[in-house]
């Protein structure tokens, strides 16, 4: 699989006809749960090919002070349906605004380095980010997605429950994230 690209949308009313594919005997399925959250500085260079293992190894090896470095978080997360506003205009036409995505996540390994990462995120910067599902698919294409990242410390009442860092990534986009194969899976 190569990284999918957005189609060029027509500017007339005729539109594009999608070409679906359904296979009775061997359907291609994808499974949920976001397992990895990858962030980079907002001014980081895009990947040349998000599916290239050598490019990932080079970015992972960079010091966090390098503008193209990435940080990889092991999380439990999902991507719910985005919010979108539909407006009826003249001629009984409907237009859609940008989609507002919110990706909630939990970090359940609370060591000093992860807690320090949480404190750094609290500075309020925006990040480029990608996310990876447990079945090895990476989302947000070569460029990543610019997003706000918020985190909070949660200490439960009971002694047997884990202290966690909960957070969310929020962004707007007209379209759903692009998908590829995560080479570090």
Describe the fold and architecture.
- The structure is a single chain.
- With 185 residues, this protein is mainly beta.
- The chain has one domain.
- It contains two helices and nine strands, in the order βαβββαβββββ.
- It has helices at residues 53-61, 112-121; strands spanning 34-41, 70-77, 83-89, 93-107, 126-133, 137-139, 145-154, 164-173, 179-181.
- It has a six-stranded antiparallel β-barrel with strand order 1-2-4-8-7-5.
- Strand 5 (126-133) and strand 6 form a beta hairpin.
- The two termini are 14 Å apart.
Q: Largest beta sheet: what is the strand line-up? A: 1-2-4-8-7-5
Count up the helices.
2
What's the overall geometry? globular
User: How far is it from the N-terminal to the C-terminal residue, by CA?
Assistant: 14 Å
Derived structural class: mainly beta
Domain module count:
1
Secondary-structure element string: EHEEEHEEEEE
Low-confidence stretches: none
Q: What can be said about the biggest beta sheet?
A: 6 strands, antiparallel, barrel
pLDDT averaged over residues: 93
Instruction: Please state roughly what percent of the residues sit in beta strands, choosing from under 5%, 5-15%, 15-25%, 25-35%, 35-45% or over 45%.
Output: 35-45%
How many beta-strand elements?
Answer: 9
What is Rg? 19 Å
Classify the helix fraction into a percent range: 10-25%
């Amino acid at each position: 699989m190569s990284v999918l690209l957005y189609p060029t949308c027509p500017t007339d009313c005729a539109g594009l006809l999608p070409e679906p594919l359904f296979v009775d005997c061997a359907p291609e399925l994808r499974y949920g749960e976001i397992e990895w959250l990858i962030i980079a500085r907002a001014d980081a260079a895009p990947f040349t090919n998000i599916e290239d293992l050598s490019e990932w190894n080079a970015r992972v090896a960079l010091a966090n002070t390098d503008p193209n470095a990435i940080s990889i978080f092991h999380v439990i997360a999902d991507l719910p349906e985005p919010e979108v506003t539909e407006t009826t205009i003249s001629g009984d036409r409907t237009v859609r605004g940008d989609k507002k995505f919110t990706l909630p996540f939990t970090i359940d390994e609370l060591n000093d380095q992860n807690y320090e990462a949480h404190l750094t995120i609290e500075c309020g910067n925006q990040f480029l980010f990608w996310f990876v599902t447990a079945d090895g698919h990476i989302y947000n294409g070569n460029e990543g997605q610019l997003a706000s990242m918020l985190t909070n410390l949660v200490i439960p009442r009971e002694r047997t429950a884990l202290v966690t860092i909960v957070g969310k990534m929020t962004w707007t986009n007209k379209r759903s994230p692009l998908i590829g194969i995560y080479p570090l899976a």
